[in-house]
Amino acid sequence: MTLHQMPEGPTEITTNPYDDDHLREECGVFGIFGLDEAAAHTVLGLHALQHRGQEAAGIVSYDGQQFHVERHVGLIGDTFTKQSVLDRLPGSRAIGHTRYATTGGTGLRNVQPFFAELAEGGFAVAHNGNLTNAMTVQRTLQKQGSIFSSTSDTETILHLVATSKERDLNARFIDAVRQIEGAFSLVALSSKKMIGCRDPLGIRPLVLGDLDGAWILASETCALDIIGARFVRDVKPGEMVVITSKGVESLFPFEPQKTRFCIFEYVYFARPDSMVEGRNVYDVRKRIGMELARENPVGADIVVPVPDSGTPAAIGFSQEADIPFELGIIRNHYVGRTFISPGDSIRHMGVKLKHNANRRMIEGKRVVLVDDSIVRGTTSQKIVQMVRDAGAREVHMRIASPPTRASCFYGVDTPEKSKLLASRMSVEEMAEFIRVDSLAFLSIDGLYRAVGEAARNEGQPQFCDACFTGEYPTRLTDVEGADNVRTLSLLAGGG
């Protein structure tokens, strides 16, 4: 359709970071136990975890007598930094969640933490990850009389705790988590305790910290840094930590298994300044770039990152290849979620809202573009064209991960497999599609070397790498089932 054929009226151009051509993390969780103004510390922690989800956020606090809940659509800074909101969240204990909807969709009723009045009192839970049997369990619970008010898989956990026949909360929680499959890092809050738990494979991250005697749970160490807390340790895969006024108790409710931490945390999801499973993310990404340069050398004048996610790998590539690193593309960090155009003339400005070529650096040069991944390929295509329009003589692209060929079912927003460029094209076809002079990806063994392994153990992989290999470490009960559509009869837009 040409511009003059487009309908009249205001046009919405999406510019939000979770609507473009990248994989997106579902959520970040944070909890604090035993510090005044717990909610304010939770807001700061969630702010540091904003990259893990920008759609909505929620906080539940407890003041010793009563629970308080605030859930809002939008960024942390849009709502939770207001004093009036913080005043409604008193207490020395709180848990919080920032989300991007991969399971359940948008709407306030799907915003976590979820809270319910159980027989023993109030209970709140927040979840990072995705349950691969949530719908199957939900159907069973509904037949037994459970009532669901959201389409989130996290509500399933709440119902399992509520309906457990065990006597105390710890046992009920254990009973619940033993019935779920998939990836989960959970933070929960009752009147007496805060609970953290990771799935037995440890697919999603969770760390334990302390601040002036208060205990903290968070998805990443950067959330500890922002409030000046001390990193204590990673919560172990399959571990359940129970925090009370007496301290921290460690339980292991699952059979020990070989761990399968998500390797894409190192490629993209985690913040570069975080320590994840004992590794500095920035260091790993630089090493990824070095491996990429060793595996896929190219004659070029400059190395240019696709900002911001490609920057650490591009630095590593530049150092290893001895090719100058230049900021040939500048990112506008002040673009909001959407841009409403005054007319149709800028309907297709697309990627230019966030990226602009630095012509002085690019013109007449042979350019190596370094990015973290190619998903649909549409953004890569636009970036390449932008660099060519800026006068690049050659454009080569190097990708700091293997081709993304399979969907993720563990808490990452991945398009269906047919929409993943690498699932239906060879590397040569992809190069032609995005219009580069050459295209190369990091090998799976190169990625494993970058995280400190000799190679991928084919018989027993050290990480979850299903998005690259299609080898899923857990059962995909819901995906394989016939009745796997999560719906509600009442579909209110805001509810």
What descriptive keywords fit this protein?
495 residues; alpha+beta; Glutamine Phosphoribosylpyrophosphate, subunit 1, domain 1; Rossmann fold; 7-stranded antiparallel beta sheet; 27 strands; 26% helix; disordered C terminus
- Name the helicity range: 25-40%
What's the quaternary structure here? single chain
**Total strands:** 27
Content of β-strand:
25-35%
CATH superfamily of the largest domain: Aminohydrolase, N-terminal nucleophile (Ntn) domain
Q: Average pLDDT, to the nearest integer?
A: 89
| CATH architectural arrangement of the largest domain | 4-Layer Sandwich
CATH class of the largest domain: Alpha Beta
Q: What is the count of DSSP helices, taking H or I runs of 4+ residues?
A: 17
Our measurement of the CA-to-CA distance between the termini, rounded to an integer number of angstroms, reads 36 Å
Total separate domains? 2
Helices and strands: which structural class? alpha+beta
Rounded radius of gyration (Å)? 23 Å
Contiguous runs where pLDDT drops below 50 for at least 5 residues? 1-19, 337-348, 490-495
Write the layout of secondary structure elements.
Layout: E1 11-14, E2 24-25, E3 27-33, H1 38-48, E4 56-62, E5 67-73, H2 76-79, H3 83-87, E6 93-99, E7 114-118, E8 121-131, H4 134-143, H5 154-163, H6 169-177, E9 182-190, E10 194-198, E11 207-211, E12 214-218, H7 222-225, E13 230-234, E14 240-244, E15 247-251, E16 261-262, H8 264-269, E17 275-276, E18 279-280, H9 281-295, E19 302-305, H10 311-321, E20 329-331, E21 338-341, E22 355-357, H11 359-362, E23 366-371, H12 378-389, E24 394-399, E25 412-413, H13 421-424, H14 427-434, E26 438-441, H15 444-450, E27 463-464, H16 466-469, H17 477-480
Parallel strand pairs: 16-27, 19-23, 23-24, 24-26
Antiparallel strand pairs: 1-21, 2-25, 3-6, 3-12, 4-5, 4-6, 7-8, 8-9, 9-10, 10-14, 11-12, 11-13, 14-15, 17-18, 20-22
